């Protein structure tokens, strides 16, 4: 019988924070003493039909993890490791750091959870691991990874409003583009709004180019058939439509008040900045921007109708 060390470690890590100690490191030290070795962890994960759903955030990931956790035989968690944003920021600036982090700690932590709960399917809905997906697929080829995307206008709006209301500089503000990125040399001249736009574009582009499965937020929250097509079937899970209907109406962690309004309320400058940075990536997912033709001189691509959308990319 395995003691649920992961839950105990989380509680202790929260306590040490009150004494000025590092919550993230405290959690890792606790897990390190009880988790299996890396090779054992790989074996454990491989035989538990593992999956990971990644996104930029602001894509109903808490709701998605909660509902998938109710699927028969599944154990699904949402961003379970405290302060894991540190490793997300590290992965952007130093991609080579992703594999050591996964191999030395993270997959071992996953395996510990598997041994504690003994599920048939282990999954995470975890936006923080979005820049770790290439290393994860190399270490655990059996892991299915779904890229969840949402209209960039809604994501940028939500992130920008939360940043204004927070009135502080979060870890993500310290992130800068890789040196080969075209925005790297002009980063210091960009506004906060433009930086958030770049974040949506760069992160979705990376996930799109490194995953074979894709889902759209607008589809899976509007249509059960599309939720089944884009999420359940690729993962081999089943959930009743009634459960989806009951939970999709109750948003979790939603932005309650917006300082910046919807697209039509944006200034012309903001619309042009967004279109210039995000326009081509928006088209990859079938999102239409009214101003895109005037700014970029490219043909418009209409949003696919929810009932006929085919967002899953075949291998």
Task: Please describe what this structure looks like.
It is a single chain. The protein is of the alpha/beta class. It has a single domain, classed as P-loop containing nucleotide triphosphate hydrolases (Rossmann fold, 3-Layer(aba) Sandwich), CATH 3.40.50. Helix content is 49%, strand content 8%. A 5-stranded parallel beta sheet has the order 2-3-1-4-5, sandwiched between helices. Helix 8 (152-166) packs across helix 9 and helix 9 packs parallel to helix 13. It is globular and about 55 Å long. The chain starts with a helix and ends in a 19-residue tail after the last helix.
The averaged pLDDT comes out at: 84
- Assign the CATH topology: Rossmann fold
Number of strand segments: 5
Please indicate the count of domains.
1
The CATH homologous superfamily: P-loop containing nucleotide triphosphate hydrolases
Give the radius of gyration.
20 Å
Basic shape: globular
Query: From the helix content, strand content and strand pairing, which structural class follows?
Result: alpha/beta
Helix amount: 40-55%
What proportion of the residues form beta strands (DSSP E)?
5-15%
In whole angstroms, the N-to-C terminal distance is 40 Å
Looking at how many chains there are and whether they match, the oligomeric state comes to single chain
Individual helix count? 14
H/E series, N to C?
A: HHHEHEHHEHEHHEHHHHH
Q: Strand sequence of the main sheet, in spatial order?
A: 2-3-1-4-5
Low-confidence stretches: 165-169, 292-315
CATH class: Alpha Beta
CATH architecture classification name: 3-Layer(aba) Sandwich
Main sheet: strands, sense, barrel = 5 strands, parallel
């Amino acid at each position: 019988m395995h003691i649920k060390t992961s839950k105990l470690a989380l509680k202790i890590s929260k306590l040490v924070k009150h004494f000025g100690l590092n919550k993230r490191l405290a959690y890792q030290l606790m897990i390190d003493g009880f988790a299996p070795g890396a090779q054992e962890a790989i074996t454990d994960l491989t035989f538990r039909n593992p999956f990971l759903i990644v996104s930029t955030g602001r894509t109903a990931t808490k709701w998605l993890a909660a509902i998938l956790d109710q699927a028969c035989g599944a154990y699904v968690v949402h961003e379970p490791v405290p302060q894991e944003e540190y490793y997300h920021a590290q992965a952007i600036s130093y991609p080579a750091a992703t594999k050591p982090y996964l191999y030395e700690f993270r997959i071992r932590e996953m395996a510990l959870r598997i041994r504690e709960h003994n599920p048939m399917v282990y999954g995470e809905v975890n936006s923080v691991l979005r820049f770790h997906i290439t290393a994860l697929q190399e270490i655990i080829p059996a892991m299915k990874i779904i890229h969840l995307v949402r209209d960039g206008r809604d994501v940028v709006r939500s992130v920008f409003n939360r940043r204004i209301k927070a009135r502080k500089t979060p870890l993500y503000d310290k992130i800068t583009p890789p040196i080969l990125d075209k925005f790297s040399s002009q980063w210091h001249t960009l506004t906060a709004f433009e930086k958030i736009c770049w974040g949506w574009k760069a992160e979705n582009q990376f996930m799109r180019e490194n995953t074979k499965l894709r889902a759209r937020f607008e589809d899976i929250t509007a249509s059960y058939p599309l939720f089944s097509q884009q999420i359940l079937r690729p993962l081999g899970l089943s959930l009743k439509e009634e459960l989806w209907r009951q939970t999709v109406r109750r948003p979790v962690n939603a932005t309650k008040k917006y300082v910046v309004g919807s697209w039509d309320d944006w200034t012309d400058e903001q619309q042009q900045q967004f279109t210039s940075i995000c326009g081509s990536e928006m088209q990859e997912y079938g999102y239409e921007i009214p101003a895109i033709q005037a700014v970029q001189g490219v043909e418009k691509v209409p949003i696919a109708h929810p009932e006929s959308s085919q967002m899953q990319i075949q291998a």
